[in-house]
Amino acid sequence: MDKVSIIKIPVSYVKPSPNKLIAYDFLNIEKHINFEVMDKRIVRINPTGFGGNHYHERLETWIAIGGELELVWKDGETIKTIIMNPKGSEEMHLITVNRNVPHMVRNKSDIEGFLFEYADQTETNAKSFDLINYPNK
Known about the structure:
Blueprint: E1 4-8, E2 11-15, E3 21-24, E4 39-45, E5 50-55, E6 60-66, E7 69-75, E8 78-83, E9 93-97, E10 103-107, E11 113-119, E12 127-128
Antiparallel strand pairs: 1-9, 2-3, 4-11, 5-10, 5-12, 6-9, 6-11, 7-8, 7-10
């Protein structure tokens, strides 16, 4: 399994302009998750704040809403990043972080961001990993 995988969430409805509305197939989201979901949370990340900066034994899958949430993770000796919900984009994605991958989510905007989080177990024994000050970043 890749350290991080990305799956596009299907659009179920689009109402045309002037007030464009896009609906996503959110009610059936768990059919796109390849593990048994044992923990569900909504995580709020304040403007310019971050969450995580750790690694752990559980699989996590997120949907990012609001803000401009950037996933940062360590892949070998390299630090990788992706904006999970790019400003102005109509796409929405499920992002899965594999077990024991150091990661954090940073809110790069001035409004709150939220993660709808699914995991295969409750979060216990997370170990700190300082991606903010990682030498190769």
